[in-house]
Amino acid sequence: MAALVYDGVILLGVLMLASAVALPFGGAGKIAFRDFWFTLWLFGSCFAYLGGLWRYGGLTVGMRAWKIRLISADNRPMTWPRCLLRFLVALVSLGTAGMGFLWALVDERNRAWHDLATGTLLIKTGNTES
Questions:
Q1: Are 30 and 87 in contact (CB under 8 A)?
Q2: CB 61 within 8 A of CB 4
Q3: 72 vs 70: CA distance, rounded Å
Q4: 12 Cα distance to chain centroid
Q5: Is the pTM higher than 0.85?
Q6: Cβ pair 66, 6 in contact under 8 A
Q7: Distance between CA atoms of 59 and 83, rounded to whole angstroms?
Q8: At how many degrees (to 10) do helices 36-56 and 80-95 cross?
Q9: DSSP secondary structure letters along 4-40
Q10: How far apart are CA 18 and CA 57, in angstroms?
Q11: Which of 58, 60, 95, 96 stands the most exposed, by the fewest C-beta atoms within 10 Å?
Q12: pLDDT tens digit string along 74-126?
């Protein structure tokens, strides 16, 4: 959960940067969830950040800080479609007041909904004391 908070702070920066890039293309009237294309751009920017890190390194900045790594339960590589599914299910998890993330507290292997949907696990990579 702490890694989620870390990544949330970074995602705020990603959203600010994405907004700054979009402003010249339509002015300051862009409002998320009112302008479809702007909203899609913001979600796409978040996916590019998270999906890219999951796809190519198996961990985000928050995951690195807390020494956890994303792995596939079946040793398949993280493909872009799999990353997209993970991202979309994580959005559903957040949209249900975080229930999908809290599910990890009751799952025997500590999997959240997006882990169940994509066949992934989070594993500890070392001692978190440093």
A1: no
A2: no
A3: 7
A4: 12
A5: yes
A6: yes
A7: 12
A8: 120
A9: HHHHHHHHHHHHHHHHHHHTTTTGGG--TTTSHHHHH
A10: 22
A11: 95
A12: 888 899 999 999 999 999 999 999 999 999 999 999 999 999 999 999 999 87
